[in-house]
Structure formats: C-alpha cells, structure tokens
Amino acid sequence: MDTAANLLQIYGADVRGALIALVVAIAWSLVRECLPDQFFVQHQAAYWWGRVILGVLLVGVFGLLWWRGDNLVLNGSFVEAKKHWGTGYYEDLLRNGNFDTPATNEDFRRAMQHFPYVLHMPRPKRDAELGPVPDSGADLDYVPNRWIGGRHAYRIEFNADEGHNRFGTLSQRVANLKPHSNYRAKYLVRAERFTAGALILTTELNWKECDNIQSLPSLNEWVSRECRFSTGDTDQVDFRFVVRSKTKIWITGIEVRED
C-alpha cells in the first residue's frame, strides 16, 4: 500500500490528478470514436507498435520499482495524513505523560499541540537544561506544482532563535531492518526561508547527524537530499528530523531503502 501511495505522490495524484486522468481518458475515447475505422486500418502497424512500446515501458517502470525494493518508511509522502508518525522514543515519553508534572503541565500541553511534531520541553529539577519552549508549529500541507498536481507534505515553521535545547522534532520508528547493514535515506525539502543548519536528519539515539543542510540551491523549489547510515546491532532506527533555528520548510517523499 505504501508503494502505491508513493507512486501516486510521484505523479502528483490526488483528487485533481484523478480528475485530470479521467478527462484524458474521456478525450482519448472521443477521439477514438470520431476517427474513422479506415484510419486505424491504414495505420494498423503503427497503432500496434505504439501499444507494444507503451507496454514495454510500463513493464520496465514496474520492474525498476521492484528492483529498488520496498520503502521502509511508512506514509513517507503523507498521503495518509499523520499516520505512522510520532512513534519515536521521545514521543513515547511525552505521549505516556512522563513529562507531565505540575511544574511542566503548560509546557507539556504546548509540546503536544502539533503532535506528531513536538517541541523541546524543559524537565523539572534539571536547571542545566531549562530554557523557553521554542516558538514553532507544524501541520500537514498541500503544495501545488507549478503546472498541475502537487505534493502532500509536512510543513514546519520554526520562529525561535537557535539556543541550548531549543528544537522541534518529527520522528518515525523504522523497523524490519537488517542488523549490521547499510541503508540510504532520501527525502524532498522545500523552504520559504532557511537558516544554515536549521534542519538535520538523524537515525541515532544520540542524534548524531545523518544529514545537515547548510544551504539550499534556491528557495521555493523542491530539493532532493540523501544520506547513508548503518544499523549496527539493532533492527530498527529512530528516523528523526530535527529543526533548531529559524526556518519555514516542507518535507515529503521520504524513503529508506537498503543500500
């Protein structure tokens, strides 16, 4: 199902995309009916070869997708809204109420306001880690393409200055990995405004960076990013985006495949 969802995302398929496909199909059927049968008799060889070539191309496309393997990130294009996101260890602490104490009750509610995107929340009795909850929010969005179609994406707007333990994060626990194996992560990012190092991707519990974006070629354009990581002794990773300084970005097209 996720492979089908990603295929739909690649071609900008949504209600509008489905309507466009329906209109094209109807237009072709009308053209087919309007043309005399003699036309197809005269061009029978070309018509036959056209269908053969189209069939070969379709088989090639599906063969390539099969060869690439499964995308191990679920709902990586957000066509199923927020499903499967917010499943990392940090989110578990918040969801289970481990930080929900009288001293942090207000911060807890704010941290969970845009779940599965969550904000850093100061823990009680840890003065070294105390700091203001950053001004940030996130939600699902739909970004139209320049001509037709568009992409479902997750929008994050971080308005706070960079500081100690100020961050917002979006995570998914990716399972069914092979221990001691190499994997490649890919995703698309688009920014309306961006600060160097504002977005990182990590697959480590200590948040060691897998990808750190220092600059983007241009704003308001989709940019493909990728990085590689190893699993070590585990068969799962905490696949986590961390935003930590001023930016407004959209993320989608997220993939993890064996390298």
Topology:
Elements (H helix, E strand, L loop, with lengths): L1 H9 L4 H20 L2 H6 L1 H25 L20 H7 L9 H7 L6 E2 L16 E9 L5 E9 L9 E7 L7 E12 L5 E4 L6 E4 L10 E8 L6 E7 L3 E12 L1
Antiparallel strand pairs: 1-4, 2-3, 3-10, 4-9, 5-8, 5-10, 6-7, 6-9
Give an overview of the whole structure:
- The chain has 259 residues and is of the alpha+beta class.
- Helices cover 29% and strands 29% of the residues.
- It is built from six helices and ten strands.
- Strands 1-4-9-6-7 form a five-stranded antiparallel β-sheet, with no helix packed on it. The protein has a five-stranded antiparallel β-sheet with strand order 2-3-10-5-8.
- β6 and β7 form a beta hairpin.
- The longest helix is centred in the first third of the chain and has 25 residues, at 44-68.
- 27% of the residues are buried.
